[in-house]
Design goal:
- The chain is an alpha+beta fold.
- 34% of the residues lie in helices and 30% in strands.
- Strand 38 and strand 39 form a beta hairpin.
- The radius of gyration is 46 Å and the shape is extended.
- About 2% of the residues have low confidence.
Length: 1312
């Protein structure tokens, strides 16, 4: 009884406890952090480490820069708002070493190499060490390289002047110099580091990452009592106490901040934040899934130690002129290792010391060092010198070594042609064996040992094609065997006979002392390993380096390749005056056609800018980064990590867009050079592949050299660009012939173009790639190049591309796709027939698949121990499967064998026949149910709908496979694509170039000028018709006026302000004669709106004009008058023409004069309706001639435009209603009229003839085509006083579909 009561009490206690911890809950109380949110990636850490210091230094100087917050878009790794270049220091070691790590593992030369046939005197190695080795031999020895890595993040467009690594002493001098010249911007002498986790609570690891987030083990009770709702000063005091409790010392509280002091007494703010969070643990009970804790971030300042040998991170100096100086703590004294056998290399000095100790201990010598010390100890000085010194100084050793090398070289020369024949024979025998017509069941080893007579008998049983292949194999098999024996014999000479002859052969069994006479006194170079220190420097992001990159001492390398850094990838531009010093190797990324699958950086990650104003004595461009760089830098592709076969698979972009004329670039070094691999001793042909950054420039390596032996690259500017229209090419050619294409360098270069593109851009690119896939399957090489190439290929390029096309067309990738397409088409025909049958429809496989997918198979497997689960689900499965008519399936299987009914029927029967007696049987049933699901899905893949979709995607599947770099011909495909298609960046270049060319021809503001002049003179045409005579009968009228005329078109608007004076006299005959003078001021400008295809420009025209003219107004019959006049105008205008796209803005200015004449004639008839009211009918014709002078612009891309004369004929007719009012001492009239205006001739202006200043070819500026046909509404109010004064107002509105025109005028005068 007591026992039962105790159990009951325990159960009650457990159930009542359930979850007594208020910090754990089913749902989170606070934000749930991202997994590993506490971890800073290298890039983010690089930014934060630097920017925290910058922000703190700025704060001390009263500047709030807030750089750290600008660099915290962790999800997208963007730092667009940061205009500084952080440098991340990386020591990627697994053992926590912060001094150095292995950059390159041990590289040991093979024995059949230069290092394998070079030797160092043991006596010199012992007495002089590395100093006793000449540099040529030293560079060919094996090595291992260790050091650190620095990553420079150039963000999105930042520039740096110099990047210089200095020893500790020289760095200090540079800092002092910067201070003295007021050139110091930021001196980084330390770094903010996290205090790290000091949470030692035993259960701190119970929830994921709790120890790494709650660094100080702050309890939630402490949060509620000491942090929540408290002032920052109170929280800082609590935090100081907590940090000191956990071992952080030297803290100072000032107000609401904490500080530490460095060794110089400078105070550095402690950077901290505290945030309640809820950690998630998926394996916890439901009511304990989330645990509340405090996310603690605390960073304190740590100084760099100049004398440290455990932390290689050094100080950095950022100067105001844009340079970065870096302190390098390493001591670069060379150290040698000895690699003998399979063990790890050991220090040479240790091996020497060990040898001396062994001899001193009385041991017999077993290696060259022990022989040296043994002889030194036991020989007389004369005997010792005879053995160890004299043979090396009298030439005996050098002579034997030279003879060894000479004879080995000769043997290798004999070997090369034999190996070539051997490999050719191997290829022939392999080709015969792999030929589809090779007789089935016949193996080479059977043929190899057949006698000639047996072989002839065997042949008699074969077809003619089989006989041909068998004879081919036998012929070349004999050659292969013969040459194999010859190769073996010569290799034996190289490895044994010749070395024995000269005493360099180590014979382990049965050799003579003469065979190895030198080996006890020398050490083979291939066994000596250089222990190198150095730096790997990475440049990431998009930016420029304008000055010197000097990595200082050590074995240093630079990496400039795609790193998926931020949004923009990597594209580094070296300015024309940049140079690279103290660098052994530059790894370069980016390659042809790499818009997708390789790099978001485009075709190259490294670009070289060029100063096109500099030419040398030979007339070649030379000012670029390679001019003053180390001439022996090895440029190599990153893919070389795996194999040297891909060593030259990279490209460097030369910014030929800066160049405006054909010429040559002196590279300053050899483009083609040799590189000997340390390990294999094999010599490789190396090249630096250059490409142009511009679609208008071709960069060609014609293997030419300067007088100094440096390589020359020819730059050719294309006469036309295939993707431009004929009209656009005419404009382009005028720029090219003027040698001013370089003005458009920002437009033509791909280096500044986007790396992210719109959906429309992506769709266009997909269409191009799909077309290429189709042509590779269906067209020959010529058709493909004619129809798809976006370039004018040279004959050499065309032949090269045709070979690539044939290789691709002949590949398994393309053949398999063609076969798959045929197979799908065959299946589609069958499926179309099948789906019409009642048998197939009765199966209702869609519904069947839905039913069997409803079973949760993983869950059923977990619960297969439960007999109820087994029985219930077995019954359901059997019921569903039994509904499928196997007889129908069997029939369809025979009628449609290609459509997978066989597999489906088998799977159905397997499920039906599976008996279930226990959990194991149930497991087998579930396995078979899965197989049935797969078979059903596969059959449904052969529906008309699915097959049609697969066929629609078949060409897309091919290009995606080719794009993925997974096929044997992907490289050929990428080369082809790069030669015939623009990359997406180049497509953008083309769009931007078209925009600029169209601004020169299609929307040039000069096309508007003649109509402005015409509109000015036309203003005077209507004035004689508007002089009212109904208010006075006096014979003399003098009047002046001002008219404001505003014109608005879709992309053009402006004002003409006209002032005029008029004198009219009535003759005795009643004819009125008038004289007019006037002047106008005009201002018009473009109003293009920015859109996806256009960029707003702000070209404008400003000018003045003067007019003089006369007219007469002659009565013809009662109330009908004839008015005729003539006038002349002279105008002068200043034109400011702007060309703009998304990458550059160009300005040019010109002056234009116009001479204009016009004459007009018309009729006016006044028809009285009642007293003081009359209708006026008006009709007139006008002719205007405008002669526009030639233009000679100045500016960025100035134009020369020929003079042109324009002729216009206008007509106007309409009616107005007029009313006269009478008042005391005055009379007034008001008139309202409607008119039709038509431009009878001249409004479709012809093209102006223009050219770029200095060009030999011209192009047409499209004339303005806006017609004048319009409706005109006119209101006119006039007042005439009895004493002779008159005044009035007028307003006119003219409109058509292309233009609106509003005129407002005032007038005043005197009659007498």
């Amino acid at each position: 009884m007591k026992k039962n009561m105790l159990m009951l009490m325990m159960l009650i206690a457990i159930s009542s406890y359930s979850n007594t911890n208020p910090n754990m809950s089913k749902d989170p109380h606070y934000r749930v952090p991202l997994t590993n949110e506490y971890v800073e990636a290298i890039e983010q850490k690089g930014y934060n480490d630097f920017l925290r210091i910058v922000d703190e230094q700025n704060r001390k100087n009263g500047i709030i820069s807030n750089y750290t917050n600008k660099a915290t878009k962790k999800a997208s790794r963007l730092h667009d708002n940061v205009d500084l270049v952080p440098v991340a220091h990386v020591v990627d070691s697994s053992d926590g070493n912060e001094w150095k790590y292995i950059l390159e593992g041990t590289k040991v030369p093979i024995s059949d190499s230069d290092a394998g046939r070079s030797y160092q005197r043991t006596e010199k190695l012992i007495t002089q060490g590395a100093k006793g080795i000449n540099n040529d031999n030293f560079e060919k020895m094996g090595y291992e390289r260790s050091g650190y890595q620095n990553r420079f993040y150039l963000g999105n467009g930042n520039s740096v002047k110099d990047i210089i690594y200095l020893s500790k002493d020289n760095f200090s001098k540079e800092v002092e110099k910067a201070k003295n010249t007021n050139n110091e911007r930021f001196l980084i002498e330390g770094v903010y580091k996290s205090i790290g986790s000091r949470n030692t609570t035993p259960d701190a690891d119970a929830y994921p990452n709790e120890k790494q987030t709650n660094l100080l083990d702050i309890k939630m009770d402490e949060y509620y009592s000491k942090i929540e709702g408290k002032s920052r000063t109170e929280v800082a005091a609590f935090l100081k106490e907590k940090m000191e409790e956990k071992g952080v010392t030297g803290l100072i509280q000032k107000g609401d901040e904490l500080y530490t002091r460095d060794s110089k007494g400078n105070e550095w703010k402690v950077l901290w934040s505290l945030e309640p969070i809820s950690l998630h643990k998926s394996s916890a009970p439901d009511d304990e899934r989330f645990k509340d804790t405090i996310f603690t971030r605390i960073f304190t300042y740590n100084e760099f130690d100049d004398n440290s040998t455990t932390d290689s991170a050094g100080k950095k100096l950022y100067t105001k002129d844009g340079s970065i100086y870096l302190q390098d703590k390493y001591d670069y004294n060379p150290e040698l290792l000895l690699k003998d056998g399979w063990g790890e290399p050991k220090k040479l000095s240790d091996k020497i010391a060990e040898a001396q100790e062994n001899i001193d201990n009385g041991e017999l010598p077993s290696n060259t060092f022990e022989h040296y010390f043994y002889d030194k100890k036991n020989m007389t000085e004369a005997a010792f010198n005879t053995k160890w010194v004299t043979p090396f100084e009298n030439g005996d050793f050098d002579r034997d070594l030279e003879n060894l090398r000479k004879e080995v070289k000769e043997a290798k020369e004999r070997l090369a042609p034999i190996e070539k024949v051997y490999k050719e024979a191997q290829e022939k025998t392999k080709a015969a064996l792999n030929d589809p017509a090779w007789p089935e069941g016949v193996y080479w080893w059977t043929l190899k040992y057949m006698s000639d007579s047996d072989f002839e008998t065997f042949l008699s049983t074969k077809t003619e094609k089989e006989k041909e292949l068998l004879k081919e194999w036998k012929k070349y098999s004999a050659i292969e065997e013969e040459k194999s024996d010859e190769i073996y014999a010569i290799n034996e000479e190289i490895t044994e006979t010749i070395p024995k002859r000269y005493g360099f052969y180590k014979s382990y069994w049965g050799g003579s002392p003469a065979d190895e006479k030198w080996l006890d006194r020398v050490l083979q170079d291939s066994k000596i390993i250089r222990n190198l220190l150095g730096k790997n420097i990475q440049f990431r992001g998009r930016g420029r380096i304008e000055g010197t990159i000097d990595l200082g001492e050590g074995s240093n390398q630079i990496e400039i390749e795609e790193q998926f850094t931020g949004r923009y990838g990597t594209n580094i531009i070296l300015g024309p005056y940049a140079k690279i010093l103290n660098v052994k190797k530059v790894w370069v990324g980016g390659q042809l056609g790499s818009d997708s699958g390789v790099s978001i950086s485009g075709r190259a990650s490294l670009s070289l800018d060029i100063d096109a104003t500099k030419k040398n004595d030979e007339g070649n461009f030379y000012q670029h980064a390679l001019k003053d760089s180390d001439p022996n830098i090895l440029f190599i592709s990153r893919s070389r990590i795996i194999t040297l076969d891909e060593r030259n698979q990279f490209q460097i972009e030369m910014m030929t867009s800066r160049i405006g004329e054909d010429g040559a670039i002196d590279i300053g070094r050899k483009i083609d050079y040799k590189y000997t691999d340390i390990v294999t001793g094999k010599e490789y042909d190396m090249t630096i592949p250059f490409i142009s950054d511009s679609i208008a420039h071709s960069l060609v390596d014609n293997k030419k050299f300067s007088k100094n032996g440096t390589s020359l690259l020819d730059v050719k500017i294309k006469d036309e660009i295939k993707r431009l229209s004929p009209e656009e090419n005419t404009v382009y050619r005028s720029i090219k012939n003027a040698k001013k294409l370089s003005v458009l360098s920002e437009t033509l270069t791909t280096t500044n173009k986007r790396t992210t593109f719109s959906v429309a851009d992506e769709n266009k690119n997909e269409e191009k790639l799909t077309n290429l896939a189709i042509y590779l399957k269906t067209k020959d090489a010529d058709e493909l190049l004619n129809d798809l190439s976006q370039f004018n290929l040279t004959s050499t390029e065309r032949d090269e591309m045709k070979k690539l096309i044939e290789n691709i067309k002949d590949s398994d990738t393309v053949k398999n796709n063609i076969k798959k397409e045929k197979d799908l088409n065959d299946k589609l025909k069958l499926a179309e027939k099948l789906e019409k049958t009642s048998e197939y429809q009765s199966l209702n496989l869609d519904s069947f698949l839905t039913d069997i997918k409803a079973f949760n198979i993983p869950n059923l497997r977990e619960n297969r121990e439960d007999e109820t689960v087994r029985n219930e689900n077995t019954k359901k499965i059997k019921e569903i499967v039994s509904r499928l008519d196997t007889a129908t399936l069997d029939k369809l299987k025979d009628e449609y064998p290609e459509l997978n009914f066989d597999d489906l029927l088998t799977a159905v029967n397997n499920v039906k026949n599976q008996d279930v007696a226990d959990k194991w049987d149930f497991g087998f049933l579930l396995n078979k149910l899965e197989t049935l699901q797969t078979a059903t899905k596969k059959q449904l893949d052969y529906t008309v709908e699915n097959l049609t979709k697969s066929l629609a995607d078949i060409n897309k599947d091919l290009y995606k496979e080719l794009e993925g770099y997974t096929t044997s011909i992907s490289k050929d495909y990428q080369n082809l694509k790069g030669k015939i298609y623009y990359t997406m960046r180049e497509e953008e270049v083309l769009t931007e170039l078209k925009n600029m060319l169209n601004q020169l021809s299609d929307r040039n503001i000069y096309s508007k000028l003649n109509k402005i002049s015409k509109n000015e003179i036309s203003t005077y045409t209507n004035i004689p018709f508007e002089v009212t005579h109904a208010l006075t009968d006096k014979k003399h009228i003098a009047r002046g006026g001002f008219i404001s005329n505003r014109t608005v078109q879709d992309n053009f608007k402006g004002n003409i302000y006209t002032a005029y004076g008029l004198y009219e006299k009535t003759a005795e005959s009643g004819t009125k004669y008038g004289f007019m003078i006037g002047g106008a001021n005009t201002k018009h400008n473009e109003v293009y709106q920015r859109s996806l295809t256009t960029v707003a420009t702000e070209s404008d025209i400003k000018g003045v004009s003067a007019y003089v003219g006369g007219y007469f107004n002659k009565p013809i019959v009662n109330n009908l008058n004839w008015i005729t006049g003539v006038g002349a105008q002279y105008g002068t205008y200043k034109v400011r023409r702007e060309m703009r796209n998304n990458y550059q803005d160009l300005h040019s200015e010109g002056k234009v004069n116009t001479n204009a004449l016009n004459t007009y004639s018309g009729l006016i008839m006044n028809y009285p309706i009642q007293e003081d009211v009359f209708v006026q009918l008006k009709a007139l014709l006008a002719y205007t001639m405008v002669k526009q002078s030639k233009v000679n612009e100045s500016g960025d891309l100035p134009l020369d435009i020929s003079a042109k004369t324009y002729h216009y004929v206008d007509g106007e007719a309409g009616i107005s209603f007029n009313k006269i009012f009478y008042g005391d001492n005055l009379r007034s009239s008001i008139s309202a009229g409607a008119y039709g205006i038509t431009g009878l001739a001249g409004y479709k202006n012809g093209d102006m003839d223009a050219k770029i200043d200095g060009s030999t070819s011209s192009f047409g500026i499209k004339g303005d085509r806006i017609k004048k046909d319009a409706v005109k509404i006119n209101l006119d109010y006039n007042v005439q006083t009895d004493i002779g004064y008159n005044y009035g107002l007028e307003g006119t509105y003219i409109s058509n579909s292309k233009e609106n025109n509003v005129k407002i005028g005032i007038k005043a005068g005197y009659t007498f």
